[in-house]
Every structure is written in C-alpha cells, then in structure tokens.
C-alpha cells in the first residue's frame, strides 16, 4: 500500500528503534537503557495506556524520545469497519494530546494492519504512516532476550526500522524479554557503528 514508510536511507549509518503498545511495564527500564547508550527511539503509544499511565508518557518526552500514535484501543483495523478504524486511530492521538499537549506526527496501525481509510486520514492530518523492516517478535509466549535480539540483528542494516514492544500482551514474564533484547541490540549497534535515532530524524532530508 502506498503512503507507508518501511525503512530509511541505507546510505546513512542510522537505525530507528521503535516500541509499540506502551506505556507499559518495561518502558522506564528501556528509557534507562537508551540513555545509558546515548540512543534515541520512537514510542508508538496506545491512547488507553497513556490515560492509564500519563506520567510514563511524559517521561518518554522528557528523556528526548519521539512519539507516534498507535490507536486508542489497539483494535485490529482489518477486523472492523473503515469508520471504526479511523475513529480508533483519531481517538488515540487525541488521548495523547490531552495528556501531552500535542498529537504525534507519526502513526502505526495496530498489528501493522494499515487500511486505506486510515492511511488516507493520516495523510489528511499530515501524519507519516510507519511500518518496519526488522521484527523482534518479543510477544512470543516463550521467547528469550537472545531470541529477540537475534531476530532483529538478522535484518539489522543502515536504514532499518526495528519493531519492539515496551508493553507485553502475551504471557507475563519478569523481566520482559524486550529488556535484555534491547540491551543486546544496542550493543550490536555500537559494534557496527550504527546510531539509533528517531524515525523523523531518519526520514529527514
């Protein structure tokens, strides 16, 4: 589908780490890891989770990271009407704005299931629709930090947009595998001299 970004410029030594579904249990630990490594990321927030934990949403911004919206209720937009999908998308951004004072300029559909109606509405609002090119599958029931990192690293190259999750919807685990996985990915980025930046910086001219 046109109008959706999957990756950045491979000529730049940059990678975009993105985290979906938060704010969640792992968000603040991930913020500490990113700060320790001098990395920047983009957090695609769910409106209902922002309402539940507004302080963590504010902490993401205060730490200098970028925000995207990820709907209000994390509905599968392939399974609802176009009008319901557009409403879920818009309500999510509006919930973020009520807490943080602005609507994020980036949007990612739940499950990555963009539909024509939401892509069109995002364009009308001036938002960029963002998919991914590297996937950690950190939601898998029995996954490990090593497995998460290995899946990301298999597709890690300049311009990659990496999908991880700071809120786990699958089997509860403590700590969540994304925490150790993030550490291993950040170490690999440093080995390869790749810089973790926000999606907007990666896409800038």
List keywords for this structure.
8 helices; 205 residues; alpha/beta; three-stranded parallel β-sheet; six-stranded parallel β-sheet
Which helices and strands, and how do they pair?
Layout: E1 4-5, E2 14-22, H1 27-36, E3 41-45, H2 47-52, H3 54-62, E4 66-69, H4 82-100, E5 106-107, H5 116-125, E6 128-130, E7 134-135, H6 145-154, E8 161-165, H7 177-192, E9 195-196, H8 199-203
Parallel strand pairs: 1-6, 2-3, 2-8, 2-9, 3-4, 5-6, 7-8
Helix pairs in contact: 1-7, 4-5, 6-7
Averaged pLDDT, please? 96
Q: Proportion of β residues? A: 15-25%
In the predicted model, the low-confidence regions spanning at least 5 consecutive residues are none
Radius of gyration over C-alpha positions, nearest whole angstrom: 16 Å
Multimerization state:
single chain
How many strand segments? 9
Class inferred from helices and paired strands? alpha/beta
- The residue fraction in helices comes out at 40-55%
Order of helices and strands: EEHEHHEHEHEEHEHEH
Total helical elements? 8
